[in-house]
Predict the 3D structure of the following.
Amino acid sequence: MADPAPTQDIRRSDRFAYDPHTQPELFEGVLSKRIVAFLVDAVLIVALMIPAALVVFVLGVVTLGIGWLLFPILFIVVALGYVGLTLGGPASATPGMRMAGLEMRTWSGAPMFTLLAIIHALLFWFSVSILTPLILLVGLFNSRRQLLHDLLLGTVVVNHWPLHQLER
């Protein structure tokens, strides 16, 4: 009987799938790219607000004003829908993140899913409204360039191309 093939014992120094010390290319320039991605996504969300507002306006006319009660929550619905469908989709990135060459993953390396993407957006909004400078400063002091809400949810933003080169 032949000896079974030896198994390779791979042990990581921590619980994260991506190590900034052995894979620095995954984290190069991530913070500045995140700022660009945020600005692109903000513009896209505002652009989506125009047709959404027109739909609510027409709905309000048809329902004799009752539909206009949707105006106060319109931004929340549009923004969470945008994040849920894009960041929680198969690309694990919003259009702004894709343009900047970024992708978000869980700490274990799994792609994002819709509920986690929505919770990530909500936690981002709450943390920015309370601790604006601190969430950005956190990214300067950890090797994975995670912001405060990333640390709390166990997500990490990495560069898209090096990630997919590693997965091949």
Observations:
- Residues 3-12 have pLDDT under 50 and may be disordered.
